[in-house]
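Thread: Newbie trying to understand structure tokens

Hi all, I'm a second-year student working on a class project, and my supervisor (Dr. K.) asked me to get a predicted structure for one chain before our next meeting. I've only ever worked with sequences, so writing a 3D structure as a token string is new to me. If someone could post the tokens and maybe explain what I'm looking at, I'd be very grateful. Here's the chain:
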Amino acid sequence: MRIFITLLILLSAISLSFAEIYKWTDSKGEVHFSDKPHPGAQPVNLPPVQTYSPEKIAPIKQAGSDEDQSEQKNQYKFIKIVEPPNETTSRDNQGRVPVVVETSPPLKPGDKIQILLDGMPLGEPQESTSFLLNNVYRGTHTINAQIVDNKGNVLLQTTDPTMLFMHRPRTGMTSNTPPPRGR
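---
Reply by user tm_fold:
Sure, no problem. This is what the structure looks like when written as tokens:
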């Protein structure tokens, strides 16, 4: 049915493009237009039919080809850690550190972010750009992030390392343990 309607529209457009248009003025002074000649009618010169030619579409590449994979690896311009700032000291007794990552362009469907703490993957990759690291030990640490696809392949190499100095004022203190009482 769609093909029939499309064909009908195309044939109408073609027939209109070849049709002559005539113009005449009647005895009352009203101007008329028609596609059929009328006594005293003059043919109207119409501008050429306006057409549109769309841009050529590139052929679809086969998924998994070397060219496709190299293009996919280059689809991201950058990835960076915006929180915490580099060389930040964190003072949290539970060792919590919020991490916020920015990518350009935003993550594509199926791609995820992997956080690395001291060069080791921390947990599973996530589609989120916000993370909360828990129980980070005292000392100096490096935090990196990388973009991975759904198969775990690294699409964009790791960010520049963000240095974090974890200072836990009290060791062994958790959120459920009340502070010790003074004597």
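A couple of things are worth pointing out once you decode it. The radius of gyration is 35 Å. The chain has a mean pLDDT of 75. Feel free to ask follow-ups in this thread.
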